């Protein structure tokens, strides 16, 4: 079977014959992080899949998000040191964050 995790909590399972799941009850304007693990008949689990981070759309009429979007990363190496370059897009709030 497959277990779907939100952060560290198992929230859903599907039989081994399925490779999709529909999650309901998500809230608008909320950040979610999901992973999937395979589980065998003796209840042993695999390592986590890659991580899926997503943000649901804001509710109609909600103020624009002040959070930066489109976070991207690039891993590099300079000599013996590993580096991580982060970049992101500005929020569309005209430069002001309301109180």
TrEMBL record:
Residues 38-99 are annotated as: Disordered. InterPro entries: FN3_dom, FN3_sf, Ig-like_fold. GO terms for biological process: polysaccharide catabolic process. Residues 1-59 form the Fibronectin type-III domain. This is Fibronectin type III domain-containing protein. It comes from Streptomyces sp. SID7499. GO terms for molecular function: hydrolase activity, acting on glycosyl bonds. Keywords: Carbohydrate metabolism, Glycosidase, Hydrolase, Polysaccharide degradation. Residues 55-70 have a biased composition (Low complexity). Pfam families: fn3 (PF00041). SUPFAM superfamilies: Fibronectin type III (SSF49265).
């Amino acid at each position: 079977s497959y277990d779907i995790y939100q952060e560290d909590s198992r929230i859903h399972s599907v039989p081994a014959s399925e490779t999709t799941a529909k999650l309901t009850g998500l809230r608008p304007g909320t950040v979610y992080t999901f992973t999937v693990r395979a589980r065998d008949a003796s209840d042993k689990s695999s390592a986590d899949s890659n991580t899926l981070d997503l943000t649901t759309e804001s509710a109609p009429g909600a103020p624009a998000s002040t959070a930066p979007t489109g976070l991207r990363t690039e891993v590099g190496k300079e000599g013996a040191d590993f580096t991580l370059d982060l970049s992101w897009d500005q929020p569309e709030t005209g430069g002001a964050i309301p109180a």
